[in-house]
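User: What would this chain look like folded?
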Amino acid sequence: MHTEDTIAAISTPPGAGGIGIVRLSGSDSIKIADRIFRSPRKKKLARSPSHRILFGHIVDPATGEILDEVLVSVMKAPNTYTREDIVEINCHGGPVPLRRILELVLNTGARLAEPGEFTKRAFLNGRIDLARAEAVIDVINALTEESRKAAVRQLRGALSEKMEAIRQKLTELAAFVEAYIDFPEEDIEPLSLKDMQKTAADIRKSIRKLIDSARYGLILREGLKTAIVGRPNVGKSSLLNALLQQDRAIVTESPGTTRDVIEEYLNIRGLPVKIMDTAGIRNASNTAEREGVRRSLRSMEEADLVLLVIDGSRPLHRTDRELIEKSRPDKTILVINKTDLPVKINLNEPNMQEISAINGTGLEELKQKMVETALGGRAAGGADIVTNTRHVRALEKSLASLDSFLSGLSNKMPPEFLSVELRDALDAVGEILGVTTPEDILNRIFSEFCIGK
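Assistant: Here's the prediction, encoded as structure tokens.
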């Protein structure tokens, strides 16, 4: 990436809208915009105070053609998103004016921004750390209000402050150990074994707490992948429709109606849930249905949560028992459906809920069970939440190195060994903030952004 270039991109979504924005960032952004902007009062963007909006037109200087009537925002470094000069051209939000203005900007000296390059420049120029940069895309992609709140907390620095505090404590501990190695003859006030163990144990506790929060955090960010499985005609599609409160899946008396996995998102108690209605599991009679059954079994294995639906109005079938035996108790809710009819089964499973998908009985209790099972008994919410798989892996690396350090202390290992473990723990924490993150990981992170952000 050439950060000395001036970049430009459309920063509003595709399609028609009231307003569209073409954004520029870089040292030549104001100069480029001035070449194509015409103010009725002959005002120049370069002479405008920062953070002002000017009215005028975008004009092709080669032909004199007016492309659109616009409002242009001028924001001068360093008090901008990227800490570079930024210009935002607010035009009418149709695809044609946006495309024409962007082409004109590119022909006048800017280059097209790469995905996430505006935010990457904000990170490289020191305005935000990497954890906060990643929160930008989480705010954009938030699936529920709780997801948005968690992303905004991270964007405002809640996780970064926690990680910086951990990093500071690790740095102090590592500095003492390395000073002892480098200057063994000097009169260095020694930390007792007990003091080092306590400091490391306190750091470990903080890291462990963050890792434990990830189950809830990852659900908020990525959604709870939930599979509705069971034999044909037990009411799987009716349950999907009841949860969505709309007729999304076809419901008939004929078995085998659902041949493929139907996916929908819904919000349950603030958790984004990606719910999948699967084909009925049985010995299928044709190729299409056999493929549907295969996908159902795969969904059951890959899901974060399984709603195993059983028809309570009929005696327990052999396939029902097989599915119960295959299921993982920690991620499965046994849903006894059709309780509006006479119940003909008697089960005593630990995580079970009786419902009627037709009249809605038991649905609210089922939703609560879904949340409790998804979180594994942990409480939802809290300020210190890890929502990113990359962060979890880095914290786990740091925790493993810290455990090796504590083990080395107990076994009276040489200080050189202890220093290596502390440095590894420190580097892992630094990866989250972007202090020690390799370039290829940075590129992968920002490639997930949209081009205009």
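The CA atoms of residues 67 and 100 lie 7 Å apart. If you want, I can go into more detail on any region.
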